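Format notes (please read before filing issues)

Several people have asked whether sequences and structure tokens are stored in separate files. They are not. Every record keeps both together, in the order shown below: the sequence lines, then the token lines. Line labels are part of the format and must not be stripped during preprocessing.
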Amino acid sequence: MRNRPLQLALILIMACGVGVCAGLFGVGGGVILVPMLVLLFGFEQHTAQGTSLVALVPPTGLLAFVNYAQAGQVRWIVGLLIMPGVVLGSVYGSRLAQKLAPSRMRRLFACLLFVLGLWQVISVWFARRE
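Then the structure lines:
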């Protein structure tokens, strides 16, 4: 897209939708924002991932967390136990990502999203009615 102000405006509009999804479903950066930056705005996979992290983790994560905590929807001990694994895994994962070609990263990411989506569909389809 050659019109930079238009592109930035469209990215802002897209980001508003991603923010709604982040607050509503607890997802946004990896699941929605990264594919949109790659597919709609031509970002390289690595750049889309890095941009997503800087845009979502500090502001969205903190604000959404505060809302969920105020509503009593946080399991503190579980969350604190998850933290070290996420920190170590993200360091390793980001280093591994830098060693992979962008096209391979996109394929791996697409496979991950497909498997997670399929899992969601199957789990809802076969869920017991309560």
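For reference, the curators noted about this record: The chain has one domain: 4-125. The chain has a mean pLDDT of 86.
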